[in-house]
Fold:
Amino acid sequence: MGEVPLGGAGPGWERARSRCTTCGAEGLLDEGYLEDTGQGAKGYVRWVRGARDTGVFGGFSTMGNERLLVRAFRCRECNHLELFAETTG
Structure:
């Protein structure tokens, strides 16, 4: 799978780009992503709806659960991370 396009995460991520919710720094947020490098990983982190449920083989069962990509912003001043679940709009 190639590059994952980012959709709209709603108005929250637009605010995140302009002000840190922890230290209040303005205009210092960098967009990035959280990389998943586990065995068999697709290379990006996803949010999964529902409580974790152990599957038959000991891993977490996510069958049938909604999954959304995660968009991340880092404050250059305090390094706080803001995470937003992508909507598929």
Summary: The longest strand covers residues 67-75.
